[in-house]
Amino acid sequence: MTIQVLKSKIHRARITQAELHYVGSITLDPDLMDAANLIEGEKVQILNINNGERLETYVITGQRGSGQVCINGPAARKMHVGDMVIVISYASMDFEKAKAFKPWLCFPDPENRPVKS
């Protein structure tokens, strides 16, 4: 049996841009992507702490070191600059292997820089 488990999480990043007239997705600073083990094109769920909105999209790589968290396309009507979000991805894995799996967790500082643990 396989189950879905948390693979990656960026917890409480601040949205820095919202681009309505874009094809869609979330653009992330590669430093955040690396800290959470996310890759370009990966499906993610975005949870907006400010208003409770939840949506799914995919990751686009932004500019390294910029702290960029940009909501693109129609989602820009649901999430705004300054909102705090959680970005999550999941993975399918064998039930027994999932018991020992440890997800990648990233807790950014107020400028969206990954905090070293």
Task: Walk me through the structure.
The protein has about 120 residues and is mainly beta. The chain has a single domain, classed as Barwin-like endoglucanases. It is about 10% helix and about 45% strand. The chain contains 2 helices and 8 strands, in the order E-E-E-H-E-E-E-E-H-E. It has an 8-stranded mixed beta sheet with strand order 2-6-3-5-4-7-1-8. The longest helix is centred in the first third of the chain and has 7 residues, at about 30-35. The protein is globular. About 30% of the residues are buried.
Question: What's a quick, concise take on this entry?
Answer:
By secondary structure, the chain is mainly beta. The protein has two helices and eight strands. Helices cover 9% and strands 44% of the residues.
Element layout with pairings:
Layout lengths: L1 E13 L2 E3 L5 E4 L1 H7 L6 E6 L5 E8 L7 E4 L11 E11 H4 L5 E3 L11
What share of the residues lie within helices? under 10%
Order of helices and strands: EEEHEEEEHE
Q: Count up the domains.
A: 1
Structural class by sheet pairing and helices: mainly beta
Q: What is the tally of helical segments?
A: 2
Q: What general form does the structure show?
A: globular
Tell me the CATH topology.
Barwin-like endoglucanases
With strands numbered from the N-terminus, the spatial order across the biggest sheet is 2-6-3-5-4-7-1-8
